[in-house]
Every structure is written in structure tokens, then in C-alpha cells.
Amino acid sequence: MSLIETLARMEAVAAGRARPRCTVRHRHLSESPLVLVPLTTAGEAGAPLGALVGTDREKPALLAVPQPRNRDLRFAFLAELAETVLPYVDGFADAVEWEERKETDPETGKKVPVQVELCADAPQLIVPSAAGVEYVRLLGRSMRFRRTAEQEPEAAHPAPPHVPLLGRWLTHFGERARVPGAGLLLPMTGLLARHWATGQSVLEDQHLGALLAWIDPPPGRSGQEAAEFAESARDADGQLRCPPAGPATDPAFDNRLLAPAMARYDAGLTGAEEELRALIEGQLRPTWDAVWRGLDLLRALPEGARVADRWKRDRWSYTAHRDRVRAGEPPQPRRDDAVTAAQKLSARETAQAQLDAQEALDDPLVMAGRRLAGEAFAGTVTAVEMAMSEGKRPMPRPLVTLRTADRPLLSGGAKLYRPLADGRTQPAEFVAYAPGEPDVLVVRLTGGMGRSRTPEPGSVPEPADTVCWTLFEHAPRGGPELPDPEDTPWTHGGPPSATTDAPHETADPVTAEDFL
Amino acid sequence: MTALQDPPPTAGAGARDADPSVAAAAATDAILRDTLHGTRRGVVVDSPPGAGKSTLVVRAARELAAAGRPLMIVAQTNAQVDDLVLRLAEKDPELPVGRLHSSEPGAFDPALAELPAVRTSAKIADLAGLDVVVSTAAKWAYTKVEEPWRHAIVDEAYQMRSDALLSVAGLFERALFVGDPGQLDPFSVVGAEQWAGLTYDPSASAVSTLLAHNPDLPQHRLPVSWRLPASAAPLVSAAFYPYTPFRSGTGPGERRLAFGVPGDGSGVDRVLDEAAESGWGLLELPARRTPRTDPEAVRAVALVVRRLLDRGGAASGEHAPEPTPLTAARIAVGTAHRDQAAAVRAALAELGVSDVTVDTANRLQGREFDVTVVLHPLSGRPDATAFHLETGRLCVLASRHRHACIVVCRAGVADLLDEHPSTEPVSLGVTVKFPDGWEANHAVLAHLQEHRVAWRP
Questions:
Q1: Which residue in the set B169, B192, B339 is minimally distant from A492, CB to CB?
Q2: CB under 8 Å to A510, separation ≥6 — which residues?
Q3: DSSP 8-state class, residue A25
Q4: Rounded Cα–Cα distance for residues B445 and B409 (Å)
Q5: Contact (Cβ atoms closer than 8 angstroms) between residue A241 and residue A235
Q6: Engineering a disulfide at B403: which of A11, A264, B100, B257 sits with its beta carbon 3.0 to 4.6 angstroms away?
Q7: Which residues of B touch A389 (CB under 8 A)?
Q8: Cβ contacts of residue B32 below 8 Å, gap of 6+?
Q9: What is the pLDDT of residues B132-169, one digit of tens each?
């Protein structure tokens, strides 16, 4: 945990209320996100119990499985989920704008500009917690290799239409959620914890009710009291007053309410199904409301300046997967091959570096944390001395003297960066501390001043200006190009076709457990 | 090649009693034979700290070049590449060596420009036809060639990530992989759990991927540490290399550290005397939970360095029987975090000490000093995270010295360890590494307790 976050948490404990970690919102929030609150069945991996889903906070669709051990009922649930989610996901597919992109021409091998479609907006799924994101991945994995009756007429238990397609989309959202700063699938606990520091541990922040209690406690209560109530208060029947955000349910609910109700359903009693649906909705509804309350809190924050840039990458991601589905490509493979795995890791590392830089540039409070960590420094310019570079074409290399109270981790020649008013980044390098004055340092500007012998106006700070330099790059580059999967080298097992025994698009093998 | 020509097994009891240089030479011969005449595409060499890894790389490169087989060398950092080029030129000033570097100014050591047979360039085409071309993995990854090299040497292969090897492996047909399995594993700043257990997990080390796909490659190890003194090799070997033991090249008493100025009886001086005598010293501060840059511990580290210099330390050993003065350049301070290193640097500057290397374990990898002063990674902490428990971190910090290592630490680390057993998730298909950091920390701590000087600043 960074020093500034530790400080914010200590302040939150002292104040009895969460402290802001940001002054702006660092994630894009869709105008109409799809909120999905899933519940799973205890002891049955991947057997959904129910869900509330929808884009209208007043009218969520309730999907419930009265007997999760019945595979037909589970399929009915998934089919219903597909009917609810897919129209929302597809709803963004046709409104497109055109973008120019460089692509390699297959004939000449040269990079040529081409016009490609980019969806104007993209779907956004909000789930209550990180466990919810994991559950979306699990659902995606369990559905995308299913075969419908159309695909395989002889199979014993064909999946309803659209179920494999929903599995592919949920898999795509789940993978995209692993990219730092991406916004196609977001957990509410993660969103809130990014923007507020509570007086509890990071682990406790996983509880949506407790987290909201710290951020927005009810009148007359401290965050700590409200969080304790949310986590552990039970009514006279021993049921939690604030049900868990799922997908796991509370054992007291399972044992005392759910199990007897399921037994009545299994016995065929009239009204048993309605009773079960009401029970499941009772567990889901408080979480549903909490997610929307969280959205209200987040929407009150203004959006960071570079958030739209990151959302655009989400739109690219959505557009690309739309194209793969339209082209009839097979579902995502069970495991990444060596090249794909390395590509994903490299892309995510770049995304993380970009996210860290962009958040700091968008938000003085985040930048304060970087300054406290010695990764940036701000101060007042006390002197500017014009100097020129050596060489055939001398270029301006002004020396800027800065007084700062920060303690950056600098060594000689360290590269520095600062944003210019027009959005460009100006490179510089650390020269030295002023003799005998540890809070005065000299920086040499090394670029961003135009091509002429005199710097462009506004590109060199003036005495009394306040300037903030970072030790980190503002737009870090991605990693090197990797070989094509067909050229996977011998060190990594050679091309994947030689190592995987089955083609990717085959269905999962049916095991004895499938027919229990 | 027949069995009769094979050298005796290096791990056998017979070899252990033999002269260390004989054992080391036998291991080197076997490695070179597999590299020059073997039929397999790869050869893996495990090298404990200071076992002559760089010497081996230089020798293998020269022998390959002498046999008319040009090769590329992949190292991990620019400092390592520059160091290798300097060593190659020192051994063979005539050998045509290319240093491929990035196009940024100051990308390589200016000393290389003085070497007549070394050519430097940012473009591989300028270096065509040279016997040896050396660069970093990062630069090689951006390099494209028509025809792959027939040979390569990959240095510090255990610190190279699997995905870095993936992007350069197309450049060569066969390679010698050299590295130290005990040092810090490569890491990723983003989660890579989804690939844990896959043979080609991109966040794993290059060697683990290589061996997972090519399990029958010849594997060798260098059996003798020439750096570590007789006082350190048994501990480092037992704590960090339990199944692949090594020993020191020098015997007890061959290396000596002495001070011209007698101690003043303070805790700092007593721990210096203890370290000069036994090779290890633990300066134990009272138990306390502190911020990372614990001001008392940082000051204690700086004082130890100041007194090391003030007391006129002199080191003698197998290369220099006459005592040579212990200068600031031969001392290093190791920490776990960069802010700790910065705090130590500031404290040293206050005491008027300059030119002492102060850095984190990551940056001290591969370096060697006469005396090291270590701020224990767990000192003053309320918890023991995977980062602080990492075996490699402690191994690097405890194996940089030729004479003595002084550890500065708050009391209570043993209890802290007992309260925080490793709780890392276990993934299917991932080879469990031995020893785990918890075990290694306890082993080192138990040894240090015998050289403990308690001190209240």
C-alpha cells in the first residue's frame, strides 16, 4: 500500500468516514450500464441460483433457478440470461464511426492506411464485486463450448440457442476485465475502492455493504458502526440484514430458508416456485440497490480528462470481438497459446503503465501520491538559463532551476517528463542539486521546444511558474513484436498445432457427472 | 564420446575432497564439450553466486569464435552487456566484437569506444560478419535478421522472463543458457495467475519454460563459488541451494579482514569485529514496528559504513596476500526497497561518506564487493509479505561479499516469521521451488543469531 493510501486510511479511521483518494473519476461510466447481480448455489460449482439483471434500476429482470441441480432448469436460466444480455450487447454493434488505421498489406508487406469501423459506444457490465467478475468468467467458460441442437442434432442435451454466443461474450468481458483501466466489465467494490479509502482493510473492502457504509454512512452513525452492521447484523430469525453481494450466499439463508423451500418445490407443492423466487429476489435486491447507489456516488465525480481515451480502447476491443463473432470464428480457446499469452501479458503491462501515468496526470491527488513516493516532484521555478546543445545544429537546451519540498528518487541524468498546455509531453533530464541546497535542483529541457533555435513560446517555464515533473513516462510504449503462433520457437514447444491434441472448437467432453 | 572420457561426477564424495579448481575445471570442460560438440539445441548451466559464470561465458564465446562459429550473446541489462564486452576484450583484444545498442544517447559504456576490435552500433547490419555480437534481450527483441545465428549464449537466463525468450529465440538455432537459479525471479506488475501451470507461462523464468519443453537438455552446474568466503558458502549453499550444494574456492582463514584502529566498545564496533572474525555480523536493534525507512535502522547502517572506513579496514586473500585497504568502492549497502536505499544514501551523505554503492537487491544482482551491509528486508515490519519473503531477495543480499556481511535488523523477526507462514496459493502444474522464502529466512536468521550484537542507538 502506498504511503498516501495508508495516510488516507488512517484519516478515515479518525474521521469515521471514508476519505477521497481521487478528485476525479478514473473510469468511464456508461449512460446505460447493464447491472448483473448473480447468485450461485453453494456446493455446486457453476450452478447459478439466480440473478437480477437489467439497465433500469426500478425494473430489474429476476432470473431464478428453483432447483439448480436440474440441468434443464439451469439451461433455461442461461437461455433467459442470454435473451436479456445479448440484445443489450448487440445494441451497440451497428452505430459505428470510421477510423483510419495502419494495416500491413498482404501483397506488398507495407503498412498502408485503411478505413475501419469503430463502434461509437460499447456495452458496460457492472457486477457487485471481484467475485462477480470471476463468476462472469466461469459462466463464459461453461457456456462457450456448448453445442446447440442446430450445431449437433444428435447430442443428448443440446444447449438452447444463443447460450454459446453469450458464453463467448462473457468470456470476452472477463478477459478484458484483466486489462488495467478497462471498462467493459467492472466490479462495484473495485470502482469504489479506487476512489475512496476506508478505515478498514483491503480485504474488508470486498464487502459492498461495508464499503458503502464507510463512504456514505447513514446519518448519526460512524462508518465503522455502519460497516459492522452491514457485515454482521442479523434479524430475529438469524438472517443477515444486509445479504452478501454474492455470488456466494449466506449459509444461514441456505440452511434455514432455501433448503426447505427447495424441498417443497421438489415435492411439487403449489406456490413453491413463487416462494423460491421471492426468497432469491429478497437476497438479490439489497445488492442491486447498493450497486446503483454506488453508481450515483461515482457519477457525482467529474470524469478524468484521459478516461475517454481509455474507453476508446474498450470500444476497439468490443468492435474487434463483434467482428470475430460476425466472421464466424470459433470460440476463444480453452488455453492461450504461448504467443497469445505473451501478447496479453505485454499489452496488460503497457496498459498498467499508461493507466498509472494517466491517472496521475488527470488528478492532483493521485500525483501527490506519486510525489510522496519520490516518482514526481513539483515546485516553483526560480531561474531559467538559456543554453544550447553541442553539435552541428545547436538546439535550445535551457536549464531550469526549481525549488521543491518534494524528495524525488533522482540520480544524475535521470529522464523527466512534464505535460505541456497543448497536451504534448516535454522531455527533460535531471542535472544536479544546487550546491548546499538539497531542495533546489536544476533540470535541463531536452525537447518539446520546436525545431528552431529559439524555443516556441510557452514551451519553457518562466521564473515563478509552478511546474511538476514526473520520473515516469506519460505514454509508455508497448513491448516488441512477437513471432506468429506458427513460428513459435523450439524453446516454447514449437507451433501450437503440434502440441494441442484437440482443435479448439470441440465441445467439452461429457462426463458422468453431467448426467447426475 | 565414450563413458571413459567423461569427467568424474562433480557432486560425488570424491570430487568434494578434491582441489576446488580441479572440480571447477572438470565442470567447465563438460559444459564446453556439450556446447561445442553436443547434438542438443540447448545446454543449461546453473551457477551459484560468484562461481565464475562470466568467466565461463567469455571462455565459451571465445572457443566458439575460435572454432569459426559466430555467435550472439543475450544479456539482461546494459550494464551486463558492457561488462561482458569489456571482459571479452580484456581476454582477447583482437576478437571482433559487436555491441548492439539502443539509439538513445549514452546507451553504452563510453569505455567501449576505446577498444580497437569492438564496434558499436544501433543497427545490426553494421555488425554483420563480426565473431561475437552482444546486446540486451530487449534490444534483440526488436532485431530482425535474414538468417538466424547458429549459436547463442543467454546470460542471466533465470532472470529473463519466458516472454522475453519467446521474442528472441527465433534469432538462434541453439544456445547455452547460463544463470543463477537462486537469485530473484522475474516478475510482472500485472497479474499472470491465469497462465500459472502452463509450460510457457509468460511470467515464469526463461529456463523453466525451456526445460518444460525440452526436459532432456544437458544440465550442468558450477560447483565452486570463488567469491564467497569459507564462512559464507556453507550457509548460502544450505539455505538457498539445498539440493545443489556448492563450496567456496578458498578455505577457512585464507581471506582475512582486519582493522588498523581498535574498536571503541560500541555496538557498531563490536559487530565490525565480529564480522571481521567470523564473516558475519548481526547488529540487532530493539524490537519496534517502523515505517519502511526506519530512521534508527538507516542511521545504524550508515554508522556501520562510516566506522568500516574510519577504522582503516584492510582485506587480504588468495589474490593479494598483502592487506589492501578497504575503500568505499569495495563496500556496498543492500536494501529491499528503493526508498530505503535513498534514505541510506542521504544518511551516508550526512556522515560525509560518498562512493559507497547503495542499492536494492534487484540492482545488486551480479555484483561483488569485499564487505556488504544489509538492511534486513523484514526489519521492523508488521507483516511478512511474499515480496519480503522472496528467497532470491535474501539470497542476493547475503551473497555479494568476498569477506564479510553485516546485517542490521530489528529484533523479533523470528516471531514475525512464525506469525506469517507462507500462504501463497498453490497452482497445479507449477514446480514448487525449494527452499521457500520462509524456510530460507529462518535458516539465515538462525546462523546470524550466533554473531549477534544487540545495540540500542
A1: B169
A2: A156
A3: B
A4: 10
A5: yes
A6: B257
A7: none
A8: B59, B60, B63
A9: 999 999 999 999 888 899 999 999 999 999 999 999 99
